[in-house]
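Protocol step 4 of 6: structure prediction from sequence.
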Amino acid sequence: MVKSQIHVSAPNLLCICIDKAGGGRYVGRMYDKYSKQPFLFEELGQLVNRMEYLFDRIGYPQASTAVRHFAKDKTNRIQKKEGMMQVLKTEDIISQSGSRATFVVHVQYRQNATWQGNIMWAETQQCSSFRSALELLKLIDGALNVKTKDGDRSVKEKML
């Protein structure tokens, strides 16, 4: 495992709170610095779409590839909103917690049409790097499927 750090001063720092998990479905909340209200999601696809939308709106991290659409109408493009104001402090974001698990995520790059960054599982203080959005989702899924019964491997071994 490569130790990674979460940069709490990052403008796109996110806190993902998972409240319900079962049957491959995760329900929870996502907190960011630009909204007082959390984004509520009922599946990880909604979460990924909202994260991408936020990154496009704040222009960070900048995407290295242009998004392509099936439709020829390009009016659906999201324009960077100049001067988006941060309404929550980092402390307000990272102090949130989910009923099942809490993750602090910092996406550092959007290269090769995916994300690279760091994730911290707040309950265990374990950090890990991810090289794609899929790997990020697998880390979250793996953490939520950890069994903590006696005789099982440690939580750390299972997450990574």
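Step 5 (inspection) to follow. Confidence is low (pLDDT under 50) at residues 147-160.
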